[in-house]
Each structure stands twice: as structure tokens, then as C-alpha cells.
Amino acid sequence: MFDYHIHPSYSIDAEGTVEEFCRAALVVGLKEIAFTTHLDADRVGDDCYVNVKGKRVDIASSVWFEDYESRIRTTGDRYEEQGLRVLLGVEVDCFPGVQGALPERFFSTDFDFIIGSVHLIDHIAISANGRAEEVFRKYSMEELGERYFSILIDSIDLEIFDVLAHIDLYRRYGEVFYGESIHDLWKPHLKELSSKMLSKRVGFEINTSSLRRGMQQPMPEERIMRALRDEGISTVTVGSDAHTPFDVGKGINVALDMVKQAGFDGPSTYRKRKSTIIPWSDYEKQN
Ligand SMILES: [Zn+2]
Ligand SMILES: [Zn+2]
């Protein structure tokens, strides 16, 4: 079993050390995990920080990249002997102008895996309760879709990440605000999104955090998985988006079952930002 979306306490909204997450991953039987600390470079917001040894450090500081990389590599070496592979990753927040705002060290760090996600519209997190509504009040549902998907699609062109995170994140608070029809928000954007993903070899993740928030489906929901498969997308990773060791691996088996039912050949793994599909027969032998 793999979990490719984990936030250790470097993320300012997470708890638990790299060591504690690795231990928890072994206990639940994971074979591979990717640490994906948030990299929010939008200076208009106020989240451009990470925690390093109990201190708030600006994401542009080389101190945190060095500490993060060496911590994950040294801990990973120890856990590899115990059958757990640990990847160095990051979750990049995409917004217009992101490429120029990312610190130099981002481009020179030897990441195994990079997630790209859209949390921010007009510098406001649509993933945050109480804040998302500020954005929703400004836009009709169609306008929200235009904005969200144009940021997502334009970001793919930058070639700064490997998979798109939680494609239908707008659903988390948007469903209550706009109603059921938000489940179709992606439809007018599918062709452009998938052709861009194919041309830039970008995959997508199935994010299981929604299952822990009482939602019925992971993100994206099954209909979107199937639509992307029909458009020829074959690279899928799975992640819990755990912000505490307790949540590591949660919902992964349920999500993988959906990926299988949706007709994908297997989940993908990454090494040095190169993906490999693990066929179901091999995956099931290993796990
Ligand atoms: Zn995210
Ligand atoms: Zn995340």
C-alpha cells in the first residue's frame, strides 16, 4: 500500500515528526510514502511559512530545504531496511504568477515527487471553512469553475509538478453553497484539462481526506476518475493528505479499489519525478 500525500509538522497546519509518520506507516502496513509539505508562495496571503525545529521559517529560506531534505533522506534510509520506502516530495500551491514566486531552492532540490494543487482563488483558500464563502459570494458557480480550472490548466504548462491534487476540492464547501450541481463543474473543462495533462505527462491523485470529512467520495469522485481514464490519462497516485500520523494510510484501500474498478492498469509510483505504473497483479503480490 502507498500513501503519496503526507504533511509532517513542517507544514504549519500539521502535527507529527517525519519519524512519527514513518513509524505509523509501518504499523498500518504501508510500503511507500511521500512527504508532501505545503509550499505556499503567494505573498498576498499569510501562509508562506514552514516549521523548522519549532520555529517559523519563510519558505524562501534555504535552511528549511536543507533541514527537510536531510531529515527525510536520513530517516528514509533507516526505514528502507524495515521495508518502507520514503520519498521526498512537496505540495505546491498554484496561483497566477506561482513560477516567479517559488524560491530558487525549489528548482534545485532533488524531489522524488511533486504535487500541484489549487487551494487559492484571489489569494483566499477555498479549502478553509469560513474563508471559502468569501470567494463563493463573488462568483456564480460557472465563474468559479472558470477561475479554478484556468489556474489549474495554466499551471500544468509550467511543468513544476507531477500530479494534480484533489481536482474537485471546490466541492468540500462549495456543495453547501451552490448545491448538488457543483458535481458537474468539471465537465466543460475536461477536454482542455486532459489534453494538457497528456501533453505535459501530468497525472492526478486520488485524495482520501474527504472520506474523513463525511463525504461519500474521495477527491476526485469516481465519475471524474472514469472521465479522465476515458481521455487517456493513466497515471494515478493515492494519498491520505494526513496532517497527523493517526491518519496515515486512511482510505487508501477504498480509493485503490475505485481506481481498479474505473479501469486503470494500476497505481503509479515515483522516483526522481519519473512515474511507473505498478500493474494490479504485482501490486497485490507486494501488499
Ligand atoms: Zn491540498
Ligand atoms: Zn495536502
Which ranges are low-confidence, i.e. pLDDT below 50, for 5 or more consecutive residues? Answer: none
- Give the N-to-C terminal Cα separation: 6 Å
Q: Work out the helix count.
A: 11
At the fourth CATH level, what is the homologous superfamily? Metal-dependent hydrolases
Q: Quote the CATH topology.
A: TIM Barrel
Q: Roughly how many Å is the radius of gyration?
A: 18 Å
H/E element string?
Answer: EHEEEHEHHEEEHHEHHEHEHEEH
Question: What are the distinct ligands in this entry?
Answer: zinc ion
Largest sheet: 7 strands, parallel
Oligomer designation: single chain
Strand line-up across the major sheet: 1-2-5-6-9-10-11
CATH class: Alpha Beta
Q: In one word, what is the shape?
A: globular
Number of domains: 1
Total strands: 13
The second-level CATH architecture is Alpha-Beta Barrel
> How much strand content do the residues show?
15-25%
What's the average pLDDT?
A: 95
* Secondary structure: helix percent: 25-40%
Q: Could you say which structural class the secondary elements and strand pairing correspond to?
A: alpha/beta
